[in-house]
Give the backbone structure.
Amino acid sequence: MTAIPGAIPKRRRKLVINRLMDRRPLDSATVDRFVERYGAPIVEGDRATFLWRGEADQVLVRHRVIGWPDPLPLRRIPDTDLWYVTAELPAGSRVEYQFEVVWGEHRQSYVNDPLNPKLAHGPFGASSVLSATGYEVPDWCRPDPEARPGELVEHVFTSKALRRDVRLWLYLPARFRTVVRYPLLIVHDGRDYLDYTTFQTVLDNLIHRGEVAEMMVAFVPAGEQRLVEYANHAPYARFVARELTPYLTDTYPLLPTPEGRTLMGSSFGGVASVSTAARYPGLFGSLFLESASLVFTDIGAEHGGGHVFDPVVRFVNAYRARPRRIVERIFMTCGMYEPLITPNRSMVTTFREAGMEVRYVESRDGHNWENWRDRLRDGLTWLHPGEQKFVYE
Amino acid sequence: MRTVLLGPQRFRTTLGQVIGAVVPDGAVATVTAGWQDREGNTGELDAILGGRGRHLNLYGRLSDVLETDRRFAEAALAHRDAVDELAGIYSARLHSALESVYSVQRRRHRPDLAEAALADGVRVVRGIDRWYLETLDQLYGELQAAAPPEDSEPISRHRAEVAEALRQAAAVAIGGGHVGVLLRCLRLFDVDPPPQLPVIGWSAGAMCLTDRVVLYNDFGPRGAVGSEVWDRGLSRAPRIVALPHARRRLRLDDPMVLRVLVRRFADARCLLLDDGARVDLGPSGELPAGARVIGDDGAVHNLQEPS
């Protein structure tokens, strides 16, 4: 081994799972005490050890972390029913995972970790959560009794462009007044954002703290044809730009300029935001993109995303061939552990070279709602800063 | 002319003691418009003033004007949009100019060259600040022309009531809060206390008494974004940039940035108003010995003699 001059060798303490395996006899009672004491997964510095107890032929960790083997197989400790695997986990990371358990011909998938009470919720159900050292749920997404709550008003909007009714929820800030003009944020997958990111609480808190401007937010849920409508779909863009935005502007005291209008979305919702802004350049002042599915190819058409991505790839390839300014400012965020990190990093440069101001934030997280929740403050405070700088109590 | 500037009153309340010393008797006209819709929550203040407070309710009056005078409300809304747009343009110009100054300041090989470039860079920043205030004056002129306050019945009525309350007051106390709202109310209702009337201002209230109101917050969610001029104040405390909550809001350990701040606002003094601070200005607005200011070297000093 070559020594690096000046470097202090890092003395790593033996992992508790290895210390357990050194124990003799390693009986069931010892394993019971071990699991009770440490819980699971066990985080030690930059290592995480997943545990599973039970009879099985094979146990796998299912996750979507780029860089870890997928799936991550657990090993059984001889003469016990305890399975384990240790993986690298840098400080500040957050990983959602589930187990897959195999007995003979039988395979049980999407099993949450019975030893871990931490769960994250999303439209496809709950997943277990592994939090590394240094990760904390932000305080601004928990209800603050001092923050006055805004109001959520339900609307049903009949869209000619989409030939269907669109139910949406409109957030009005506390102390809403008609003599003030508010910025407007239109959020794709709006119902999911409300249900899985505590968006309403976040708005209440950040507005209360003066970190974010008092604003109106239209939470627009996806329709049944989400993957079609969000993938650069002309009728959908027309609905947002030519129907919903004018309706809200005429009905509510909104800022009449592009600077006051922002489109937001995660994953395919990010594509819907970019493609709508691209079809109606200058109508919106900014975009808030979280893990946007801006997949592209540099040559050929093989993108690996399946046919639902075909229109996305055609759109992004065309945009990259002729980049143009579609808004003033873009806030982008993406998890380092998700496959979309590479296209997102690349699109930052593309957007900047097209003359737009871009702020880009990466997180040690994946393609999930809690990651998108945790980035709300970064994006909202940059795009629509509040009046904190005016307040000197 | 008696003017006293105080630091924030939330954790170290000195207002009662100061009022007792400055004006032992008589009514104290209070301005708490910076508290906005909490303007009426004056229980603590009433206790401090021992029942001598006469609240001017400027925020409530502003709300009444906006609700009852449609012409003024529309003009005020258009004015606010214009100011927001101006502030956005100013911010974009200012921050690139400041970045350029900081970048020059970091160069060390030929100090003579760097110093000349730095002086020029600061001149540019001062020019941008001046341009902003002059353009803001034009926008106020447009508002005045679009909806002259003297033509408005509610504004005239409120102005008369406020003037009467000031005539009967032995002192004026201006509280902290939202400095933009506070200034808007003071301006709309013509609150400009005559020289013989003692004025005590704390936090945002102290900022309003200076020539220029400067906003800053190096520790906000967006990080240090540089201080910005917001508006002209009442000029009761001339040649002072009041910096309440300096320790909480300014990176006082960054002399490079502070040196630029001092040069940018010279010949005004950058006055720190932290908890417990009390600054009694001299008859012409001089700072007393002991006042904490940022020096040309970017460090915090106590003034050795009045200045």
User: Anything to note?
Assistant: Chain B touches chain A through 31 residues (CB under 8 Å). Chain B is about 45% helix and 15% strand.
